[in-house]
Amino acid sequence: MKLHALALALGLSATTSANAWFLPSPTLSLEVIGQHQTGVFDEGAAEVVAYDPATKRVFKVNAAAANVEVLDLSDPSNPVPMAVIDATALGASANSVAVKNGIVAVAIEATDKQAPGVVAFYNATDLSLINSVVVGALPDMVTFTPNGKYAMVANEGEPNDDYTVDPEGSVSIIDLRKGVASATVKTADFTAYNGMEDALRAAGVRIFGPGASAAQDLEPEYITISHDSRTAWVSLQEANALAKIDIKKAKVIDILPLGTKDHSLPGNELDASNRDDAINITNWPTKGMYMPDAIDSYNFFGKTYIVTANEGDSRDYDGYSEEERVKDLVLDPTAFPNAAELQADENLGRLNSTTANGDTDGDGDVDEIYSYGARSFSIWTTDGKPVFDSGSDFEVITAMELPDNFNSTNDENDTFDNRSDDKGPEPEGIAVGTILGKTYAFIGLERIGGIMVYDITNPYDVKFKTYVNNRDFSVDAQLPDGSVNPLVGDLGPEGLAFIPWYQSPNLRSLLVVGNEVSGTTTIYQINLDFQ
Q1: Which residue, 50, 171, 283, 442, has fewest beta-carbon neighbours within 10 Å?
Q2: Taking the CA atoms of the chain, what radius of gyration do you get in angstroms?
Q3: Parent domain of 196
Q4: What is the 3-state secondary structure (H, E, C) of 346-366?
Q5: Are residues 197 and 310 in the same domain?
């Protein structure tokens, strides 16, 4: 397509088109143009989403029905349900879905969550099952390499509630080079790090499950893959680290600790209490563990950069829990001479912290206070070095845009400040997309809701673009019959999928968002303005 025609397709003027590639970052807005509603409230009826450009279909995980629903997106203003892939035929429930070259991959956990799961492959057109392969325990996220030669799945390997069975975490690498019907599986595991737990802890990797080896304790969450399809990076959320994998060798080649965010420094403020009846975004002597959930990657001047949504997550099981509020910790009197003041509910006392870290000198009290997540998104080099972090942006922006609903939770309205003591807005989903030579990060905020957008073209010069929240805080989230209120909009954005204009049904770049609490799948059109 010539540049002039491209500009028209993107809604730009002919005058703008001649210089579009060289202009500064344009104004960007997200416009809701379509939505599919399930009516199901808080059951995960819309979670992970994937788009197939050949059939113009969205495949979305519906955890409530344990299946993958197929939406016709030929008209993005009217997504229409057209079919279902029943995951219960091969296991307990679908956890993730991906599409590539006419093939749909579905990660399906076993009925026994600690047993090996499967990845099933379906024809994207007629939805027939082509093949299924056995993978690790609790396959949580599936994706394809850019060249389509491999599929990869993060096997989280979570323990049971009693913490008596703790399977090993791993990444299954499925070789598709001889066709899906002849797929073979290799496993990239962490057994080589067994016996190295002390060294990993010293480097900053959190290994703390009771009696767990490194292989058991490291729980792969999300995968991103280099453009040349040779290397993958995997978020190890609870461990606060990334794993680096050689795809062809099916081998973990490095574990990269992500360190912590010092909330006592300017720019890193947070609101730490849900009992102060106020917006109080300020510095506190606590360190946020990044603990990313979704991750993505992109190139800048030939180098790959990793983008992370720093959600945070604790281990909280019947058999073991690390969670403790700051007011219940025994704080070291030298490190925290004002401990009594800090531990007041209206200050730091309500903040959820951990008993697994913080006693740096082994004397039984806490020398460093840690919190879950960084309430931000970050950009990293491929060896885990920080390049950019959005600091306190998410709380500052939502406080300005939605002051009456700051740090609300996602399953009930009229919940001002409800999540400040936990993980704040809780960034969970992330997608990276390129439009007219500019690269953007779209970050979903799980609790208050909405999408943050940043221009990350240059990872060393990141620019905030917009925040949009398709949620009506003035109505009840749930109806008396238990269904979601259709007027409430979107609650709990989980999975995000960017659709570039050249694959889009309407030749405009789109963002598809699965919202797990409202059960809605929402289509945003991405509009640019160079004026």
Answers
A1: 283
A2: 22
A3: 90-219
A4: HHHHCCEEECCCCCCCCCCCE
A5: no
Residue in 332, 394, 383 with CA at minimum distance from that of residue 358: 332
Query: Rounded to an integer, what distance in angstroms lies between the CA atom of residue 372 and that of residue 88?
Result: 34
Same domain (yes/no): 513, 417: yes
**In this predicted model, what pLDDT tens digit does every residue of 250-286 receive, in sequence order?**
999 999 999 999 999 999 999 999 999 999 999 999 9
HSE toward the beta carbon, residue 508, CA cutoff 13 A:
25
Buried b (16+ CB within 10 A) or exposed e, 378-395: bbbebebeebbbbbbbbb
Please provide residue 100's backbone torsions phi and psi, each rounded to the nearest 5 degrees. -160, 130
End position of a domain, from candidates 168, 189, 219? 219
For residues 410 and 301, state if they share a domain.
yes
Q: How many domains does the chain have?
A: 2
- Does one domain contain both 371 and 446? yes
Q: What are the residues facing 103 on neighbouring strands?
A: 100, 123
State pLDDT tens for residues 119-148: 999 999 999 999 999 999 999 999 999 999
Q: What CA–CA distance (Å, rounded) separates 375 from 394?
A: 7
Domain limit, last residue, from 219, 237, 264: 219
Regarding whether 201 and 140 lie in a shared domain, the answer is yes
Residue 484 sits in the same domain as residue 508: yes
Retrieve residue 13's tokens. 């003027």
Cα 272 from Cα 504, distance rounded (Å): 42
Task: Report pTM.
Answer: 0.95
Residues of the chain with pLDDT under 50: 1-22
Q: Side chain identity at 362, as an amino acid letter? A: G
The three-state secondary structure class of 399 is: helix
Amino acid code (one letter) for 462: V
| Cβ-contact 512, 521 below 8 angstroms | yes
3-state secondary structure 124-165: CCCCCEEEEEEEEECEEEEEECCCCCEEEEEECCCCCCCCCC
How far apart CA 10 and CA 510 sit, in angstroms, is 11
Residues 61 and 180 in one domain: no
Tokens of 432: 């990276």
3-state SS class at 82 = strand
